[in-house]
Write a structure and sequence with these properties.
This protein is of the alpha+beta class. Helix 9 packs antiparallel against helix 10, helix 14 crosses helix 16 and helix 16 packs across helix 19.
Length: 438
Amino acid sequence: MFFSSNTTNITYLEIILFLSLSLWTIYGVIYRLYLSPIAKFPGPKLAALTSWYEIYFNVVRDGQWLWEIKRMHEEYGMVNCSLLDFSSRLKIAGPIVRINPFELHINDVDYYDELYAGNTRRREKYPWFVNAGGSPGSSFETIGHDLHRLRRNAVNSFFSKRSIVAMEPLIKSKLSLLSDVFQSHCAEAKPINLRVAFSSLTLDVISDYCYGEAFGALTDENLAEIWSTTLSQVMSITTIVMHFPILYKILSWLPDSLAGPVMGHHRNSRKLVARILNHEDVGGRQNTIFHELRDSNLLPPEEKTIKRLADDGNIMVGAGGETTAQTLAVLFYHLLDNPEMLLRVKDEISTLGEDITWGRLENLPFLSAAVTEALRLSSVVTSRLPRVAPNEDMKFQEWTIPAGVCMTLFHGRLYRFPSMSKALLTIFFPLTTFIILT
């Protein structure tokens, strides 16, 4: 005989494994296309079948998934209508599509308050999405409703108007350093990158507020460039890590020289938080976010670990600073591009004289209008933020969305959908109050 019993056993095992895998694959295809709770929703079959469809547009096509979703809404937006007594088909943007095996995308801004409901209704985050940030202990990446509320309530007061007003001396000291940077570039006739400049400003403000010491980007041009590069890296790898979360674990095992500035930022957060929790920062400022969290009664001891609080620090310093920097860069660009509007803002501010405070600035109508419009145009949240209603079926138009299904809206285009223009003009842009810079 040419085959031994061992060879026969191996062959049988291979056949069993092959058949099992084939049956599992067939079952998966049938379930996703026909048996899934969201099988009834419109959308391409390939997207319903596999997440690799999204991976292709996000990774291979370098972030084109947003535009593919827009195309899905257009392609699957055929609705019956009656026009002049003739039955016809009118192509409009479809209100809801299935964009992957587990997620629905809704193209209706009126549904925003329903999807992102407040504390009175349970909403949870989608694990696959939030795990991309690499900071699972942060309130931003917390999945469960109750735990998120606990963590969020502990930091809410630090970003209240009262707390920000109390920060005015700190903010003014950093603005003075930024003014020095602008004057230096002006004296040398050197162009300045507004994104880098404002990222340096917000980094030094938020790091000082979090840890009691600024990172020093406003006085170190090299650090400013490194930080700007770090933020760009974070944005570029997020969509990849979303699909392959093991990459963050691999990066965490590597030294900074190989892992790059992203993991270096995470390690620095742990070091700074550890100093505060271990009371090793004697002589420094004690009225920072993490000093207050350390001594807070709002959090139980298990919520005050170095890793957990360092994760919060990663998000606060990274995302918190960058959103403000982006808005400032957009604001300055449009004002510099519109000299008449710039002059009007400057004239309005000059009426305050030397006594410039936030309380007085926020009462300037034209400045407030410019800031509001910059917030709209800056698109500080450029991706979707999925939510799950774990305990209730959701109603959307004629559709019933089963409990536990992931749903989302794209925040980055929230204020730019053509269908929104009329509502936006009545809510955000009364002509006597606001300006439009575009």
